[in-house]
């Protein structure tokens, strides 16, 4: 028994790493491909085969780094959804590593480091997004690595730490434009250090100048792109406008606050108790200067709640990560008798997380009924849901073996099922199955005699009953309904003779 205890003490991070991969890889593909996942994997797939340039995603105001990573994963894994989600899983492990490193720099005892890692692994918001091919896990890890080197700089005042911090913030911006929210706390951090540490003022001032010079120089390849302005003009649609009538503005603000309350209550549950303890009673007991920095870096989260048109869990996930350190500080600050009870409270997030990974479909269904504020209905119903899409793709794949050449038509649009079809079937020019756009807005009617559908089998995949103006050429074969029983993905077959 003592040997087991000694092994656990010595190799605790190895065991937590195993727990991390267990919670992220188990049933990884159970949740069908979500709308945004389909779009991102489609872009990455087109990058891989050279159909679009590297910065193609800028047309939608999105920097390309996440899609570049997926495009590389697609070279290794045949299943596009698996490739996209594994990027998030392994990037999430990088997040676990940097959480450990930050905690070791901040907490005096190993318990604080252990708790930060456990809080991250068991938090339902991170188990949910670390298992999807979305930008948030990538953004989270780069923000944390940038923060880590800033912490290291505050302890040793090394220029190389400043350079690395600026580099990782740059990578975060190359992933998602919302990384810019962190510039505010970083400016305030340098101002704070400048006034509280007079002995190192020259170093701090020069380091601040160096930081922003490095950041701007590394950002140049992105900002010099012709479509770079779309990063700002396309993303302002998510922000509140000051031109709104006061009553409307106030209503949106109240809705954001109410929804944020529900989001934090569900996703962070008992962690909030530790947060309150840290905030109210124990802030000065565990390296208060570093803890003040954690509060400072939660400022983007507050700004986001007050400036977004609609708050959601994806927006808050990368910036809520700093809350975990404060929660761990609150936990370690209580006396030993209470601490034992607090360890038992971790059963709550553990049960939620394991329910989520064991049966994601039931998890979402339950929350849609009992906790609609979380907004998870988009994963189950409507065109954004992947339900029906997966079944349609499986059906189309079953047709592949029976034809030497097969064409799949979709309308000109992004999302489900159009992007999913492109992600799964768009390959090199020698592919058996060839997806293509089949839309009256793009193709001149009537169709010519040499149209591919007159030569090879041709199927059309629809979003509900939207046939892109090609109704007279299409005959329904199958419908795959979403859980709401209303929305569906349709499979249609091309027939030249249909009038």
Automatic annotation (TrEMBL):
Principal location listed in the UniProt entry: membrane
Q: Provide the topology term for how it sits in the membrane.
A: Multi-pass membrane protein
**Record bears the keyword Glycosyltransferase:** yes
| One Pfam family from the record | PMT_2
Secretion signal, residue range per the UniProt entry: none
Q: What keywords would UniProt list here?
A: Cell membrane, Glycosyltransferase, Membrane, Transferase, Transmembrane, Transmembrane helix
Q: Which residues cross the membrane?
A: 12-34, 82-99, 111-128, 134-151, 163-192, 204-224, 266-284, 291-309, 315-333, 340-358
Q: What would you give as a GO molecular function for this chain, any one? A: pentosyltransferase activity
**An annotated GO BP:** lipopolysaccharide biosynthetic process
Q: Where in the cell is it found?
A: Cell membrane
Q: Which domain of life is it from?
A: Bacteria
**Glycosyltransferase RgtA/B/C/D-like domain spans which residues?**
62-217
Kindly state one GO CC term assigned in the UniProt record: plasma membrane
Name this polypeptide is given: Glycosyltransferase RgtA/B/C/D-like domain-containing protein
User: What species does this protein belong to?
Assistant: Candidatus Woesebacteria bacterium GW2011_GWA1_39_21
